[in-house]
Description:
Elements: E1 2-6, H1 11-22, E2 26-31, H2 35-38, E3 51-54, H3 60-67, E4 72-75, H4 82-85, H5 89-109, E5 116-122, E6 130-133, E7 137-139, H6 146-150, E8 165-167, H7 180-199, E9 203-208, E10 210-212, H8 225-234, E11 240-241, E12 248-249, E13 251-253, H9 254-266, E14 273-277, E15 283-284, H10 285-295, E16 303-304, E17 315-316, H11 321-327, H12 335-346, H13 355-364
Parallel strand pairs: 1-2, 1-4, 2-3, 4-5, 5-9, 9-14, 10-13, 11-16, 12-17
Antiparallel strand pairs: 6-7, 6-8, 12-15
Helix pairs in contact: 1-9, 3-5, 5-7, 8-10
Amino acid sequence: MRILITGGAGFIGSFIVDKLISDGHSVRIFDNLEPQVHQGKIPDYLNKEAEFVKGDVLDYDVLAEAVKDIDVIFHEAAMVGVGQSMYHIRRYVNANTLGTANLLDILVNKNHDVKKLIVAASMSSYGEGLYSCENCGNVEPSLREEMQFERKEWELKCKCGKILKPIPTPETKFQDCNSIYAYTKKYQEEMVMNIGKTYGIPVTALRYFNVFGPRQSLSNPYTGVIAIFMSRLMNDNAPLIFEDGNQTRDFISVHDIVTANLMCMKSRSADYEIFNVGNGKATSVKQIAETLGKLLNKDISPNITERFRKGDVRHCIGDISKIKNKLGFEPDVSLEKGMKELIEWSSGQESVDMVENATKELEEKGLLK
């Protein structure tokens, strides 16, 4: 098939490109080479067998030309970064929301051959994950209030006073967005589902959890936490951890993300569906920092600051039973195996530690206390 990948030069998109080409498909990459990620340069890892079109999803005419003669679209293009989205608001809304609006407008108003559209959504739209209370059952709590942070009481409590226990979060959980980034990813998903159903274009939304792996920028302080910690350690600096370090996330290898995307492309069971894509296991942020230090042979303990960022969630782990049952998806890459692969790849990569600059920006905007 003829396949378009917006954001195809990026971390996740480029791996999708590789797999599609190895499977015999014709691939067109559409990417603006975002300076914060690529410094405006085509990355060395980009597959030479793919057609590359430099363009921005905000450029309607260039995007419309790229959609011509395409059968399937993977829409990966997005500005990424929860904290940064809270002060670069226009930049994030333009890239993520208006860029998706352009793509959908083209599919509705221009002649095309597109038979399926798969959009990269995000677990960030959940806000806090799902919890359980021994007295009250399952609970969907609101974000923690600043007064709780100031008391250094990190865990969430039920209205009855009991400490809540995090449990896997299903797709049915209410989306309680905690950042501009989260809102834009929610809007991407909702717009795609609405237009797909209205016009009979098969669409699928994949809510990615915390993706990690090779090719994730080691010089972008707004990327995933594993890459950020890697950058710190490679420059002999301690990873900065907010709160007490016991907050947990669901980390999934980029290779498993690729598998999920291709399953959705091939299966009609994925049409008009929304799926969590995670590993289904909780890992603390502190554990990530300590494990990376050991694997890198760095005797550097993380700096647990007990500071807090406004809007941060405590726990969010994916319930992946829906994608397992409908498509047969099973995560294949363990966290340790994925980290070893990331470290092996990173040995030949430049890593500029920009974390202190990003932290200063958060402080100046009043987002870090």
